[in-house]
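tool_call: predict_structure(chain=1)
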Amino acid sequence: MLALIAVAVLLAAAGAVVAAIALSQSQTSQAADLSALAGAEAAVDGQDGACSAAAAVAGRSGVTLLSCEVAGLDVQVVVVRAVLGPGPGQVAATARAGPP
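tool_result:
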């Protein structure tokens, strides 16, 4: 009986870790999208502030901007977020925004 309880506890803990990683990945993807959109909006007024705008939104979203590339009005960003507890340590997301 104790063995079954131990297995159930281990499975619940593993499930919690997987759920935390999935939630963090989703939030990181959303932050990347917002950062790229902010960068693309700033690129319309001039490319100089595009990555600054993307970095500012990334910081407010709780992620770190790893890279920002501007090509015309297109902005592509890569952001990362630390994952607490056991797991990969951090998750990353890439997003691009600009005119169609």
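agent: The chain has a mean pLDDT of 87. Proceeding to next step.
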